[in-house]
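User: structure tokens for Zinc binding dehydrogenase, please.
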Amino acid sequence: MSNPKDPPPRTGAQVQSNDQRGRNYQSSSNEDGSSLPRNEAAWISAEKGEIIVGAAAFPEAQLREVLVKNYAVAINNMDWKIKYLGDDYPLLHQYPFIIGSDCAGEVIDCIVDEQLLTPIPPELSYVDAVTLPLAISTAAMGLYPPGRLELAPPSPVGQSREGQKMLIWGASSTTGIVAVQLALASGVSVVTVASKSNLKFVMELGVTAVFDYNDPRNLEKIIVLLKQMPGRFVGAYDCIGDEKTTKSCAGVVLSLATGKIVTNSPVAMKNPPMGVKVIPVDDTPRILENKFITQMIWEKFIPEGLETKVIKALPQPIVIGKGLENIDKGIERLKEGVSAGKVVVEL
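Assistant: Done. Predicted tokens:
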């Protein structure tokens, strides 16, 4: 992690402050030729309202903030849920609001001690790098904190995989892809579930096995394999986070009589299966409060892991267009459904 006083010129970052000061820095010229900062933002003006592109005050970095000249931003499932579910979605209750968490660009100013940003290797483009930030934080908050799956710290050079094993459901989702890579880097053998069209892609990540989620016998097959594999079963990460997938994970955990489930759902499961602990990953927006994770993952592992390619910028970006006017188009595209891809807008 670079010193805040000497920030990296190219960075991938996760935005933690959903403020209303804009995200897209541009430069224009006065009549005398001097440079004048100009800023625009894609706003959601009211609950379940439209996305509107308009001027925003040029921001100054405050304490624990980073000012980034964005060249690419990514769209996540929570973005379309904020737009369409409004106050029924637990992460937003104030308008107007600038949605979005993932950005890649050039650091302009930085006043932080701990950061959710990392230098981008020269060979990695902005549109590729922007696929990672929120997925890294979400996956890490499920895999490592005390009381969750409690994996060992990941190594940027890899580790042997004999001591532990786990299940990742939804391994071709953006969080699932990163969770697989982090778990493997932590020395865990990983069994996964994904859609049939993505089985080959997930196997190429280095997992022990991947099962088709539409296979009616997949639970039986998963349980048999996990029982045969050496090592301690630590639990399951449900990267889809709906009731059906969590119950499927619970069936595996109950059969192995050990382990717990972490789920991407931001709300606790109403009626969890008896005998299974289900833990929602609902605190990713507060990840900066968890220095154990920010230091272990963002400061130590990610910069070197990107260089050694133990962590890769996956899935492939689906570039919707260039300019903030394409944000709404990207939200609609993601709402329709995307598998093994990340919706990205260039700026």
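User: Anything notable?

Assistant: The radius of gyration is 20 Å.
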